[in-house]
Structures are given as C-alpha cells and as structure tokens.
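Hi F.,

I've been meaning to write this up properly since the lab meeting, where we talked about keeping a consistent format for the predictions we share between groups. The idea is simple: the sequence comes first, exactly as it goes in, then the structure tokens exactly as they come out, then a line or two of notes. No screenshots and no reformatting. I'm using this chain as the first example so we have something concrete to point to.
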Amino acid sequence: MFRLNRLTKSLFAAICLLLIAFTFTPTPAYAATSHELYLGGFPAGFILNTQTVEVVGICDIMSEDGIANPARECGITTGDIIEKVNDMDVTSAEQLNSLVNEEFKQLELTILRQGERKKVVIEPVKDKSSGKNKLGLLVKDSLNGIGTVTYVDRASGKFGSLGHPVADAGGALTKIHGGNLYSCSIYNVKKGLRGNPGQLKGIFDNSGAYGKIELNCSCGIFGTVNEEFDYANLRKIKYGSAEDVKIGKASIFTTLDGNVPQEYEISIIKTDKSNKDNRNYVIKIDDKRLIDTTGGIVQGMSGSPIIQDGKLVGAVTHVFINDPTRGYGISIENMLGSF
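Output, unedited:
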C-alpha cells in the first residue's frame, strides 16, 4: 500500500502507500537484458510532478483599489482542476502564472469539477506589492508520499517500487511528467485493524534527491538512481519466475523504523501468474514481530520485496481490508517488464 498526500513541492514531510510481455516463446521478454538486482525493502519519499493544476485554496489580493478576489467572484472553488486558459492546456502552476501575466484583460478558464467541465470568465487583478497579475488562487501541481523500493538494477541504474499505480480518487492512473526520489525515515506505525488499514509514518530527507522518477504505470513507480547511489548496504539477489513460485513459506523485506529493512516470515497461499490486475500472489503474514507492530500489511509497505528460496519473486501491493494479515503481491517479472 502506498499513501499519497497532495501537497506542494515545498513540503517534504509526509505521512504514509499490467504490463505482461507476450512473446511467441516461453522465454520472458526481460530475459534479454542483464539485470544486476539489489534487494530493496527500504522506504523512499516520492514527489511526482502531475499534469494537472488543482485549486487548494482561495485567497484575497491587495490591489491598488483595495481587496479583491476574482476567483471567488467567478465561482471557482477548492478541488477544481484548471485544464485550460484561453483554450491553451495548463499542466503546471508555473505555466498558469505565466499565462495569467500575459496581456489579457480577461481569461477564459476551463475547469473540471467532480467529473464535469465548465468554462468561467475571470479578470486578473494586479497585486499591489509584487506588481504581478493574480487570480486569488492557491494551486498545486504535485503529489508526494511514502512507499517502499523493491529493487535497484545496478547495471542500468533503474529502480522499481510500489508494485501498483498511483491513481486518483476515482481509480484512474495519475499522469505524471517526472519527479524525484528522496531518502526517508520511518518514525511511527499506525497499527492496522480489521476494516481500518494502518500506515507507516515517515519524514523525507530534503537534503537532496537520489533518483529521478520517470514512469507511473499499472506495475508501480519506476525511474533511475543517481550515479552516486550507495549500494554498499544492499544485498545482491537473483530473481525468480512466477512459474517457479510455490505455495508455502517465503519472506518479505520491509522497514518499520528508521531506514534499514528487516526480514519477516510470510506464506504464499495462492498464485496466479496471469492475473490481469497484477494480483499474482495472495500472501499471509506469519511473523509475530510484524503482526504485533503493524497488525499485518499497512499503507507505506507497497513495494516490499517478496523472497522465496533466496530469489526475489515479487512485491507486496495491497492489504485485505477485513484481514490485515493477508494481501496481494505482484510478480517481479511484471515489474521488470514495465521499465
């Protein structure tokens, strides 16, 4: 599970959160690439640059003529998505500000509100202190949150994480244009209960990003780590095919405190390598230490690697709401074949 908080890029504290390659031979498509995988299980802070600009607040403007608020006057409300200005697509707050400060007396905004589009006409007001045109809006164009890195491929510098997509409230895949990966430290755990999922709570290290996010897809979040990324404390591991995974004992690597992962016992109780929703495994948490601390699988553990017979075979993706000791996992084949 991966939990995202829709915040501005300047906020670096966050609370935590099916591509199958078909070929004409039984050899997986990813086998042609040499993978030098290092085991993850450590938490990461994600900042995703979205392709939408969402209104998160309405604020007054002090103009030469007194207090004004064009946004409120034309009926814009928090939660609105600003899609266009004068029929020009808007994908970032920077772009919106640039258009607002062009020489237009009035602007026509296309907004999306609860699935319905409408157009409003708005007249910018010049802020007295900055001299810039403003609409009286606070907007955001990014998401951030905490999840778990599954693996890092040293040969290519690629990483895979989460094992499931970041999606909006309606379940639609969130479109992104890049992002950054940050170190993260877990400082608390909210224990999961039947009907009430728990979560990991962590804080970003904003001293600098150590990776670039390049893809959000049905199999997770993917990108590349910096050349300076330190592999010294990571374990090199082979990966296994979903065809070889068997019902029985396995383990996961995840982090419940700080940033050093620990191994915990689980059982794989069902396999389905061709599941269209990437729910290739049903797993059960057996480790009493993990159950005592978290109740089972919690938000923020998405991407925790699944190991069987010394091989990386997949990652944790979801929890059963009515039984937090059980959940789903994706096969490592599907993750490796995505990026």
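Notes:
The first strand starts at residue 3 and ends at 5.
Helices lie at 70-73, 93-100, 288-294, 332-336.

If this format works for you, I'll send the rest the same way.

G.
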